[in-house]
Design goal:
By secondary structure, the chain is of the alpha/beta class. It is built from 11 helices and 7 strands. It has one domain (4-335): NAD(P)-binding Rossmann-like Domain (Rossmann fold, 3-Layer(aba) Sandwich), CATH 3.40.50. The chain has helices spanning 4-12, 14-17, 32-44, 57-70, 86-99, 125-147, 179-200, 225-241, 245-257, 305-316, 319-335; strands at 23-27, 49-54, 75-80, 105-108, 153-157, 205-209, 293-296. Strands 3-2-1-4-5-6-7 form a 7-stranded parallel beta sheet, sandwiched between helices. Helix 5 (86-99) packs parallel to helix 6 (125-147). The radius of gyration is 18 Å and the shape is globular. The structure holds NADP nicotinamide-adenine-dinucleotide phosphate (NAP). Residues 28-34, 54-56, 59, 82-84, 109-112, 129-130, 157-159, 210-211, 213-214, 216-218 line the site of NADP nicotinamide-adenine-dinucleotide phosphate.
Length: 340
């Protein structure tokens, strides 16, 4: 477990150990975990160049002013979009590609707890935001990440370490009505998909984390009875059990910048903030240190041996390739191509 003091120590060394003008893209940063992580990034990185994506213009105006106050040397560009649609993801990525040839960081946290509606492109809304839109962003922007010097990192904030059985007969997961089984399935899809992407770009680090319980607006767009009850329970328990929002941002900034998480082809981790006295290279999703894909909890620790074993079994059965074929098939049906 990485102690919070070590996380903070690492973050305070970003300004002196990492180059200025890092370029970052935050998807889902008009609120919640994305917003707080982006603010920590703006606070600690010298002259950051940040693109942030969300739907709510009014939140973006407020956040942009707050970012400028945190770091007046930074540049902050808001791209308004509903990224549950793959075609919209392409528009956002093309906009970024018009302006940048390389990016250092892609942090994706746009999510929802709405399970009962479909996008106009025919994808379950929950899966669209949790899986398909995220993989489309990564696939589209991977050449720019690969081209960056120094830090090259993707972070997907979802449910790392909660992997479990994947329903190979229903990769979309639409027939899974049990919320726990659904989470295991979706989490495995994310980690296995990132492993496929890591083979395409081994110099890039891929982190999939479970942020713990953080009091945000997550769930506020759901009208289901279950979510209403959960929201009430969450409000009651939050003061005792939740991770404070600013601390969440600090933890995610560490995942984005620490040498604890090297890419597969840079095992000495030269690109990140140097390991502190108590911090070591993390075990990757395959149980090997520094393997380039990290499924971690909010302490930066990997899943249990049982979780690593489930992933190993799925990997051996070719589930990663099956997931990826499915993802690219969906992309091709919607857009005519596997990446924009
Ligand atoms: N909070 C927790 O306790 C917790 C626990 C475990 C896992 N997670 C996972 O962590 C992720 C982030 O959660 P969070 O708590 O930060 O959620 P949140 O507070 O609801 O924030 C989600 C962000 O995504 C944006 N977003 C939502 N739908 C969008 C869409 N269709 N297009 C573009 N942007 C969209 C929202 O902004 P706009 O409304 O402006 O679009 C907001 O900026 C989620 O995937 C969640 O499942 C959270």
């Amino acid at each position: 477990m990485v102690q919070l003091t070590d996380i903070r120590d690492s973050n305070t060394r970003i300004a002196t150990e990492l180059p200025a003008k890092l370029v970052a893209v935050f998807v889902g940063a008009t609120g919640g975990i994305g917003e707080t992580t982006m603010k920590q990034f703006a606070k600690h990185v010298k002259e950051p160049f940040i693109y942030f994506v969300g739907r709510t213009e009014s939140a973006a105006v407020r956040i942009k002013a707050e970012l400028a106050a945190l770091n007046p040397q930074g540049k902050y560009i808001f791209l308004q979009s509903d990224v549950s649609l793959i075609r919209n993801v392409d528009t956002v990525c093309n906009e970024i590609k018009k302006r940048e040839t390389a990016i250092n960081v892609l942090c994706i946290s746009a999510g929802t707890l709405v399970f009962d509606k479909y996008t106009s492109e025919g994808i379950l809304y929950f899966s669209a935001l949790s899986i398909y839109s995220r993989f489309r962003f990564i696939e589209n922007l991977l050449p720019l990440l690969d081209r960056a010097t120094g830090l090259r990192r993707v972070l997907s904030v979802l449910a790392g370490t909660k992997e479990g059985e994947l329903d190979r007969t229903d990769i979309t997961g639409q027939s899974i009505k049990n919320i726990i089984r659904g989470r295991r399935h979706t989490t495995s899809m994310m980690t296995l998909g990132l492993e496929v992407l890591a083979k395409k770009a081994p110099s890039v680090t891929f982190v999939h984390d479970y942020p713990g319980f953080v009091k945000t607006n997550l769930g506020s767009d759901s009208k289901s009875l279950l979510m209403t009850v959960l929201a009430i329970v969450a409000t009651v328990l939050a003061p005792f059990l939740s991770i404070p929002i600013e601390e969440t941002g600090e933890r995610h900034l560490f995942f984005l910048t620490s040498a604890r998480f090297p890419g597969l082809s840079e095992p000495d981790a030269a690109a990140g903030v140097a390991l502190g006295e108590h911090v070591s290279i993390a075990l990757g999703s395959n149980g090997e240190p520094g393997s380039g894909v990290y499924s971690i909890d909010y302490n930066g620790d990997p899943g249990s041996p049982a979780t690593v074993a489930v992933l190993a079994k799925l990997r051996k059965e070719g589930a990663g390739e099956q997931v990826w074929e499915h993802i690219e098939d969906v992309f091709t049906k919607i857009t005519g191509n596997t990446a924009a």
